[in-house]
From TrEMBL:
Keywords annotated in UniProt: Hydrolase, Iron, Metal-binding
Name of the protein in question: Serine/threonine protein phosphatase
Keyword Lipid metabolism: no
Record GO terms (molecular function): hydrolase activity; metal ion binding
Family stated for the protein in its record: Belongs to the cyclic nucleotide phosphodiesterase class-III family.
Calcineurin-like phosphoesterase domain span: 12-253
Keyword Iron among record annotations: yes
Matching Pfam families: Metallophos (PF00149)
Length: 408
């Protein structure tokens, strides 16, 4: 049996959706600036530096593994995947396993481009073969490989099996279209997965499940394309076995569903936006402890890197980028009347968005009722009457999405 560690109580870190575009693929010119301005609140300009800094923290603290649940690249450029693997190469020497799972933007993405001046140019896309070769550090650890997809399974230690599903939909050759948002479990993957679950159960292993797409709807309004197309079928299979928790990404929002579900699911926020969240998972005897953390990036930046930024604080910059996406949303859906009350309503919407995407939007029923009765919330509804159901969805969660302890 291949194992990553023999530790009885292993620890791994979670990262999702870093959306790296290699610095070699852009020149900070007007076309790339336009891409940054329309990037839906995430930073794509400084991710190479941000990930290099994160690797320093990983090497310093030495978890047993780092698991990345998809969208390692911004637009599926082969050069970006190569740069990602290069940035994370120090993990091997430090004794930390890299477990890289593809997302819907990674394989045969027709949007793969480099940006120069006011133009963009097609570049080599990532094929499944490219992915396995570039992230060979992951696949070399695998106890089992699905021959028909990029799915695989690894043994974190003799007691814990990590099953990693390629949930993405892509063709067999380079694409000229946009990446497909939705995901699916194919018949061949189901057969492989069933065999893996059986193998894990016979070996008396506890199992954890990972994919890019979600097992559940984590927002009552915005969920199309995020939950796996045949999630109900997948869940029916998983719950027959000792699968203790599922992990995913894709929606860019931090969210946990652990109550009234067959299998708890932890969705990690996008590392390239808001507060650079990542997760720490500690495993013990019949126990799993999860904690979300904010990456303290400034501690790991060199003085030269800090001087290269047109800002003083990286997280303040990320807030500004996120606010820019909010402003674009409000231009489309809100009618601002220029009043102080209207400005307060806009500030409330920005706060609700920040809390939702960072996993801090959970309210008690009483807190939710008080918020919705407030004059500021009512003003927000007046300014954007078509947003009523969407606004409700931002505060519907009552569970904490910052931490979770499971026992069985």
């Amino acid at each position: 049996m291949k194992v990553i560690t023999d530790k009885a109580n292993p620890e791994f870190w979670l990262l999702s959706d870093p959306h790296l575009i290699a610095d070699s693929l852009h020149d900070f010119g007007p076309r790339f600036e336009q891409m940054q301005a329309t990037s839906a609140g995430k930073d794509i300009t400084y991710q190479e530096t941000a990930l290099r800094a994160f690797v320093k923290k990983v090497v310093e603290e030495k978890p047993d593994a780092v698991v990345i649940t998809g969208d390692l690249t911004f637009n599926g450029a082969k050069a970006s995947a190569k740069k990602f693997a290069e940035l994370f190469a120090p993990l091997k020497k430090a004794g930390v396993a890299l477990i890289a799972i593809p997302g819907n933007h990674d394989i045969f993405d027709g949007w793969a481009r480099r940006f120069e001046a006011d133009q963009e140019y097609r570049v080599d896309q990532l094929s499944p073969r490219d992915w396995r070769e570039i992230f060979s550090a992951t696949y070399d650890l695998a106890e089992s490989l699905d021959p028909n997809s990029l799915s695989f399974a690894v043994n974190l230690n003799p007691h814990w099996r990590l099953i990693c599903l390629d949930s993405n939909i892509y063709g067999h050759q380079e694409s000229y279209g946009h990446p497909i948002t939705s995901g699916n479990l194919t018949d061949s993957e189901r057969a492989w997965l069933t065999q893996e679950l059986e193998t894990g159960q016979k070996a008396n292993q506890e199992m954890l499940f990972f994919m890019h797409h979600n097992l559940y709807d984590h927002n009552s309004v915005v969920h199309d394309g995020f939950r796996l197309n045949n999630a109900a079928e997948l869940l029916a299979l998983l719950k027959k076995y000792p699968v203790r928790c599922a992990f995913s990404g894709h929606i860019h929002a931090q969210h946990i569903m652990a109550k009234n579900v067959a299998i708890p699911e932890i969705v990690s926020s996008c590392f390239a936006e808001t507060d650079q969240g990542y997760g720490i998972v500690k495993l013990g005897n019949n126990q799993l402890d999860y904690l979300r953390k904010t990456f303290d990036i400034d501690r790991y930046l060199t003085e030269q890197e800090k001087k290269a930024y047109p800002f003083n604080d990286f997280h303040s910059y990320l807030v500004k980028v996120f606010d820019g996406a909010n402003d674009q949303l409000m231009e489309h859906f809100l009618t601002f009347d220029g009043t102080a009350e209207g400005q307060e309503a806009i500030s409330l919407l920005k706060k609700l968005h920040w809390n939702f995407f960072t996993g801090q939007g959970n309210l008690t029923p009483a807190e939710s009722a008080t918020l919705k009765k407030s004059a500021t919330y009512q003003k927000l509804l007046q300014m954007g009457p078509n947003l009523r159901w969407y606004l409700n969805s931002l505060t519907e969660s009552q569970e904490s999405s910052q931490e979770l302890m499971l026992t069985w």
